[in-house]
Design goal:
By secondary structure, the chain is an all-alpha fold. It has one domain. It is built from 2 helices and no strands. It is elongated and about 40 Å long. The termini are close together.
Length: about 50
């Protein structure tokens, strides 16, 4: 269970980084940045909890 949580957390952190990479300089980009940061925070929280 702990290993699965770490894999999920790592995947979420990578997904958040990819979302931020594809953000553009318009309103949609702002939404992607916010979503990417949120996903990364969830991933980091899972990593620390495990």
């Amino acid at each position: 269970m702990k290993k699965q949580r770490r894999i999920l957390a790592g995947g979420l952190i990578v997904l958040g980084a990819v979302l931020m990479l594809f953000a553009t300089e318009n309103m949609g980009g702002l939404v992607l940045i916010a979503l990417g940061v949120t996903v990364e925070i969830i991933g980091i929280a899972l990593e620390r909890k495990g």
